[in-house]
């Protein structure tokens, strides 16, 4: 919302010169550019989620559990 307000009203200018001729459309350019970035992120995220979910996992998660052995990190108080 802040960027949209800056785009419509402009920032304070100490010289008092208007910059209306140097503006480009917020909706036409920046929204499209941001949507492309979001879609690229979602493609890479979905590749990790659906095709290789264990890539970023910790190796300790693949050790089978043994109910007869207490982990070393669990100690009595």
From TrEMBL:
Domain Cytochrome b/b6 C-terminal region profile: 16-77
Membrane topology reported for the UniProt record: Multi-pass membrane protein
Keywords: Electron transport, Heme, Iron, Membrane, Metal-binding, Transmembrane, Transmembrane helix, Transport
Subcellular location: Membrane
Membrane-crossing residue ranges in chain numbering: 30-51
InterPro entries documented for this protein: Cyt_b/b6_C (IPR005798), Cyt_b/b6_C_sf (IPR036150), Cytb/b6-like_sf (IPR027387)
Protein name: Cytochrome b/b6 C-terminal region profile domain-containing protein
């Amino acid at each position: 919302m802040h960027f949209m307000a800056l785009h419509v009203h402009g920032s304070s200018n100490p010289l008092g010169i208007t910059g209306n001729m140097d503006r480009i459309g917020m909706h036409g350019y920046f929204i499209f550019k941001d949507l492309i970035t979001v879609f690229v992120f979602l493609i890479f995220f979905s590749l990790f989620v659906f095709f290789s979910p264990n890539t970023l996992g910790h190796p300790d998660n693949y050790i089978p559990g043994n109910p007869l052995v207490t982990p070393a990190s669990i100690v009595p108080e």
